[in-house]
Each structure stands twice: as structure tokens, then as C-alpha cells.
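Input for the complex:
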Amino acid sequence: MKLDAKIPEGPLAEKWTKHKFNLKLVNPANKRKYDIIVVGTGLAGASAAASLAELGYNVKAFTFHDSPRRAHSIAAQGGINAAKNYQNDGDSVYRLFYDTVKGGDYRAREGNVYRLAEVSVNIIDQCVAQGVPFAREYGGLLANRSFGGAQVSRTFYARGQTGQQLLLGAYSAMSRQVANGKIKLYTRTEMLDLVMVDGRARGIITRNLITGQIEKHSGHAVLLCTGGYGNVFYLSTNAMGCNVTAAWRAHKKGAFFGNPCFTQIHPTCIPVSGEYQSKLTLMSESLRNDGRVWVPKKAGDTRKPEDIPEAERDYFLERRYPSFGNLVPRDVASRNAKYVCDEGRGVGNTKMAVYLDFADAIKRDSEKVISAKYGNLFDMYEKITGENPYKTPMRIYPAVHYTMGGLWVDYNLMTTIPGCYALGEANFSDHGANRLGASALMQGLADGYFVIPYTIGDYLATLPAAKVDTTHAAFTEAEKAVIDSIKRLLSINGTKTVDQFHKELGKIMWDYCGMSRHAEGLKGAKAKIRALKEEFWQNVKVLGVNEELNQTLEKASRVADFIELGELMVEDALQRNESCGGHFREEFQTEDGEAKRDDANYAYVAAWEYKGYNQPEELHKEDLIFENVKLTQRSYK
Amino acid sequence: MKLTLKIWRQKHANDKGKLVDYNVDINPEMSFLEMLDDLNEKLAERGEEPIAFDHDCREGICGTCNLYINGRPHGPIRTTTCQLHMRHFHEGESIVIEPWRARSFPVVKDLIVDRSAFDRIVQAGGYISVNTGSAPDANEIPIPKQIADEAFNSAACIACGACVAACKNASAMLFVGAQISKFALVPQGKAEKKIRAEKMVAQMDAEGFGACTNTGACSAECPVEISMTNIARLNREYIGAKLTSDNV
Amino acid sequence: MSWITQTLTSTIGRKLVMALTGLFLVSFLFVHLSGNFLIFRADGGRAFNEYSQFMSSAGIVRVLEIIMVLGFAIHIYTSFVLTRRNQKARPQGYAFSQPSANSSWFSRNMGLSGSLVLIFLLLHLRTFWYTYKFGDIPTVTYEGTEYKDMAYLVKTVFQQEWWLSIFYVIIMVLLSFHLMHGFGSAFQTLGIRHKKYTPLIEKIGIAIAILVPAGFAAFPIYFLLTR
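Predicted:
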């Protein structure tokens, strides 16, 4: 199969406008004849569901949460970028486009990213009209702040809760359509399979998480807005429920998976404190503006940080990157923290942490100034760790935060399955190998509010309005497969709990396919995951029955998919013989230890095709063509 | 650290349910939910059914976790259940863990309740009617910083339901007050403010929540510190709407 | 349902009714209390008896009396409706609850303090109002007009039935609790809440909650002490 990204011809700035004109339209009176299934109600899902319902389509929206407002978009802290240039500091659509392509280490499509930058301005307008309480200046106009990877102030924010406020905006728009009867909302309902009729996505199979009922839902198109798969690492900053299941089941039905190995590791997280740890908490990157990162020079130094004299401390970021110092990008900061811990110089009980020290900043600016800047973060840190960061340095360690990879989609956000779309973090599209801060919210909302409402019409216009009944053989078959797989999970009755498998998988992924990877390790990881998969299906212990609320069963089916995904991620990391963005292969680095891209051979999207259980997946390459930006090596020395 | 947990177990909505004792020995550095994870792992190993409880982001923002711990929503300190750590308890303590109790929040299983009543209240009018694409420039209507900040304070509600759980009348007025306030305060929300107040209050009443007696328990237990001002504003908005709107 | 009944039977509408009648009843307490103080005038109870006569015969007072009785009736009826609704809102209670951690005793026990005040009210009406109207009490004559000697009745009741006096004092403590929460709460329900004025309203509420019941309690205490 030949991948066609369907990027419109013509100059970059005109692609989207031209494309919108060329897209086929569905007559307003006909829209009500089409049913659209939206899976997931985060930023992408809620905005898409609301916008499509406003256009007149019938939307069925699904979430495994008890309410659409619980989706993990709600936890995004920092902000949302938009090329408004309200600050008069030289921002433009082109600059946002350029920064995003560069920040993604030149592994994203120019066309997609330009469109993202273009619609970013509309997003802010839309959100403000919905009543989103963005931060404002005293004069009443919107405030901006600057964020990593950019030299202009273009980030709009609502304190440290921007994701929450944007999601509540989309949720309210969606709620309005629920009241209008244009959206039928299914809560505590999880998608477990995609139904294909005549090679097109025509419905989904779901499980009602309260009754266990397996249900069939038919529609003319299916939108997967199901977020990222960071929980494949077990510990991540993702919510406990985040999973790859919907995307993975679509993948198994023919949707290619793009760049699965591109994951983002965030450097400033509260470190793991013990085996029992369930989740990692992110603290804003802004802390690195004033905090100094260090470890003891000597390995195995167990003295308290206060007792270690200045001369015996290694401010390793400042030492290695004199010009950027503690403000190097996320991937560089993360990797260096890993190296010093690998050398045995980590701190804290687990030795898997580095210090982030504010003593100098407090001495320089006073405790009051520091508290005004970071008070809430310091409080959060103290709440979780019980330590006072004004008195003793914080301990931080990198954690998995975002997955740039996802279902491969074309310019219209359609996967390789006709009628099946992927939006937001669930797709691979706009961030390349590394996502810049404040860009995830922008992409989720761009896809949902301003891209899919146009592009879906182009597909539906060619599709007869006749509905496929859920009594169709394809539905019965998919339903049976889902029931069988649940039965299988419940019948194994082994000795190891689901969490134990998940933790083991997470450890393999973190050790070999995390911040730093090498061929040897990846090969070993592949075998380990294979073995884990075998063991899982023989020895997992899932208690209870299907016909009840059964959280263990839910988790088991998600972990089963994570294991398969883990295998693919390793495969992908192994084939990409270069270092770029979040993907760092130790064999491919410059003399001074920096990531070394190979643009001649690897400027492509790796799109993987499922070939059957335990069969190697087939790699398809979509070449990335850069007509507007010049590819350069990043340097932060 | 040894503790006795008295946890509400209820197989399904129609089961009678009861408190069951569990003795645990845990690491005091754990979070409250990690302690329950740990207990669940042990139960699973023993072949007993794990305790069902709601949780998701575990960073205090999604509002999913909701346990009534030792007689208070989210436990002894003002935070969400997921941000509560075991160092706030002491050796040998006995901890009672119950679900939120309210007619409008029926128990689904064990510690999980159904809070969809909140969604239905929002559906009744918790929005500004603006179709995608029809918005004017974001800076067209200035909003004084103070007003924007106040709206944010109301919008910070995470809909966990601690207010209902804490209230002796199981009243939802703090939640509804926050939803109404965040729109009533900003110019964009003014056009629909009357119909919004009327419809949301009608839905709140239809859901069967109790009436406010201004004890302030809701606000005192609210993990995101939604203030009682929101209830005063709700009253004002509702009474004003009823007196002056055209809706007979 | 017309919009008026719809409004008044909503939870907020009923709270509004509670607040308005409550504040109205507070105003009655003031009138009642200021009249009562006439008994302390050193004129052998003449002013007090004249006042009592006026209060039980003047036309305007009769109208106000009906409004007041209605005020009481509506306040009490609405409280019953709300209490029932509130109880139904939580059919199954908590096995263990610590309400004192988040709210004051006064605020949570308005029903209790209110009910006791109501019982008191009935007893109070029986003791004074009923006796005055229909009972057999001595009379005095001032400047050719005969007056029932209410001052004498009050004095003898409080002095002879000491347990009743003590009951009066106890109930005044409960009335104080009721006002302590009720006054400020009424303003909150009316939506009157402002950074500048709410602290003042709360202080006035506390002052009223202390001074008014203390004023009422002064009578039984005074007569007990002067027995």
C-alpha cells in the first residue's frame, strides 16, 4: 500500500485555504442523515463532537470516564500557543510554524504544521467566546508568557490550569449539544473494537463499564480522540486510565501506527519514591529558570545536600552547556540527569534523582520573590514529598509525559482506514520527534474545532447516507471477538496480577526504550516483551466476571494492548538509526554527546502496518519533504 | 505503619453494603490511593475481589477521586483524595472509608458513585451558546483583570462533589454557584445569564439535591477553595432572573 | 405552575422565604423587646400596662399581629418542607462523620434551636398572651380607665414559677444560637455578600444574637433576683 498524505499542492501559506475550497461539502439538510462516532472527550474529542453537532451531524460521544470533563487534557498546566502577535514582538503564523517544525527536530510535515499555526489564532478567539478565563493584563486584554523553544511571548494561559479551562470550554460546548439532542453521550463506556464494513470504518464495539454489557454502535465515520500511550511505561505523568486500546484495536484493523517510538520525557518531575508508586507528577518547567541542577561529584555520596560543599558539587548542565545552562531543552536536560544517575551519582533514597536547588536564587532575590514566582509549585512539592524546598533542594527526575507518535493520518486526519480518523495526541501528525511546550492543547483543539469539521465532509459527501444496521455480520463478528477476548482474560486465572505485568512492561520500556536507547538493548527488550506477552496470556489473574463493574478486567485488556504496542515501539526505535528529538540512540551522537540526526536516510515518517498476532509489522515510509525550512542541527552549547 | 481500614463494600447499586475491616501494614510515604492500590494487589493475590474506587489523574485536577475518609470528604486535610498522603495518619489508626452519600449520587459499586447529575446540570445551561467559527477577535472585549481572576476562581471547580458530600443537606449549590458565576461574571456570558440561572437551578432541584442552609461546610471542604460568594451570587442571579426574565 | 409558585417552591425560593420571614421576625423581636423594657420603669407598671392594653386593642397592631403570625407560620412551615427535602437528599447517612471539622454547631442545628424556640413560643403564649386575653387577672385603674395588670402577671409568674424562669433563660440561649447563624445567613441567601459589607453584617448578626436574647433573659433573671 502506498501512503498518500494528501498534502495540497501550492505555496505553504495557501495550502489550507485552497484545500478547504476543494473539499466536497455535505448539504446542510443532509448532514442530519449522518452519524459520527467520537471516541474520547478530551480537547480533541469534545471540540470535534461539539463542532460537528453544531454543523448538524448526529454525534455519538464515548468516554470511559464518568464525565467528559475528566479527560486527561484537564491536567495540562502551562498554556496554549497562538500566533496572535498581541505582544508586538515579531510573532507570526510563519514563526510559530517554523519554531514547531524545528522544535520537532524536522520530523513533522510542513503542511500540517503550517495549518496548525494558521488556525491557532482562531482557537483563542473561540475559547474566549466560550468564556474561558485566560490570564489578562490590568487593562483587560489577554496576557501572554514565553515558553521553551520560542523567542516570542505567544502562550496564552489560565494560571497553571490552562488545560482544565480549555477542556471545560469544549465540555460546555459539548454539553450544549447534548441538551440539543445532537450529541448522544455515553459515559463509562469503553471502545473495544472498530467495526469494518466493505473496507470502511462503520462502527465500534463498546463495553459498558458498569454492567459489562457489550454494545454495538453504527456510524458513518469513527473519530478516535483517545489521547496518548505514555502509560506503556507504567509510570508516567499520564492519568491512570490513559490507554492505547482504542487506537491499538484500530491499528489491528488496518490503521497504520506512525512513529511509535517518539515519546517525550519531561525533566522536572517529582521522582519515584518507592515500588508502590503509581504515578509521576509533573512540575512546571519554569522552575529551571531559577533552580540550579546538580549532583555530588562523588558517586555514592550519602551526605545531606546542605553538607556537601560547593567544590564537591557538579552543576552538570551548567558545566556541559555553558550558554544555555539549566535551560537546555527537555530532552537534553532529561538525558543528562539519567547519565549522572547511571554513574551512581543520583540522590535521595532511590538514587534516581538530581537536585534542583533554589538556594542561590533565594539568596539573590529573597524567599518572597521566589515564593511569588513558584509558590504553588513549592507547595505541591511539599504536599507530595513532605520536604520544604525553601530549605532543602528539590529532587527531580525525568518522566514520560507525551507521545508524539500515534495513528498515522493524512492531511485530512484520516487514518489508513477509510472513515476512521484520529485527532489530538492519538494521531502522530504535528509534533515530529519532539513537542514544544504549550503545543499539545493547540493541536487537540485545532483538530477538533477547525480541521475535522471541514475534512470529514469530503469523505461523507461520497458516502451514501444509508445506515449499516448493527445486525450486520461485521458487527456480530466483531462483537464475538470482543466477548471471546474478555472470556479468555477471565478464564486464565493465573498467579500474577495485571499490575505486576504492567510494572514489568514499564520497566523494560523505561530501561531500553526510554530516554536513551541502543540497538543491543532494544533487541533484548524485544525478546523480553515477547516473553512477557506469552506469560501474560498464560498467567494473568483477572478476578470477577464481565457482567459487573470490574476495574481489573478493564486494566487487563488495556495492559494486553500496551504489551503489543511496547513491542512495536521497540521495533520502531530499532529501525530508526539516528537520534532525533525524544528518540536518542546512543550509537548516533556527536563527539560531545549530542543527538545526531540523519536527514539523508531518516527524514521520513515510519508508519507500521499490523500483520497479525506475533507477526512482524510491515514498515511503510512517508518521506518528509521540506520546501520551506532549512534543516539544521540543534546546538545548546 | 499498621492501620485498620474500615471500607464500605457494596457489590452493586441494589446491594445493601457494609463496612468491612482490613488490616494493612504500609509505607507511610505512600499516597492514600497507593495504599488502596497496595491493598487491592494483596486482595487480588489472595483471590478476593479488589475494592472499586474512582481515580484518574492523581494530581488533583480531574476531580475523579472521591472518598469520604474518617468523616470528611477527601480526608483530614484540604485537598483531593489523590493528593492525601499517609503521613497525615498515625500508627495504629483506624480509618473509615465511605463513598459520597447523596440521593443524587447513587452508589454504583463499593466506593464508586454516579455523579452524572452534575453533567445534567451543566447540560441545562452551563455554557455560552457560541458555534465554532463565529467568535470575534479574542481581544475585542476587554475583561478587567479582577473580573477575569474572579471568574477563574469559580471556573477552578473540579466537580468532585465534595461540597455535596460535606453538606448536611447534600446540597449542590456550591457546585451550581460556581458554574453560574464563571459565566455570569464575564461579558460573554451575560446574554444568557437569566435563562441559564433558571434552567440550571430547575435541573439542580429535579436531581433531588438538598437546599443550602449556609453552614459553609461545602466551601470549607472544597479542595480548590470555591468560596461561599458563589452561592450568594447564585441566589442573586436566580432571584433576579425569576423577577425580571420573560420566561413565564 | 406559574412562575411565582415555581420560584417560591424551588430550593432557592424557599430559602428566600426563610430569609425574608426570618429577618421580619427579627424586627418583631426588637419591637417586643423595647416594649418589654417599660416594665422596668419605676411607675408601678403603669407604662407597661398601658402599652399592653394598646398592643392588644389598636387596629393597626391587630393587622401587624396577623402579619406576624403569618410570618411565623410561613417560616415554620417552610423550614419543615426544607428539612424534609434535605433529609430525603441523603437517605443513607455516613457511618462516621465529623461535621464539626467544617461547620459550626449553630449553623447545623437551626432546626433544633428553632423547634425549641417554637415550643417555648407556645408555652409563652399560653402563659402570658392567653392569660391576658382570657384568663382571670387583677386590674388597675389609671385616671379612671381600667387596665389589666400585666406587670403584676409577669412579676408573679417569674417570681413564683422559678423553673419557668430558668427555662426562659435557657431558651434565650438557643434563640441566641438561632440568631447567631440566622441573621447573617439571611443576607447570604438574599445574595447580599460583599467584601466590604459582609463582615459588618456578620458583626451586627453576632451583636443581635447576643443582645436581643440577653435583653429578653433580663426579665426572668431580674424577677428571680428580686424575689
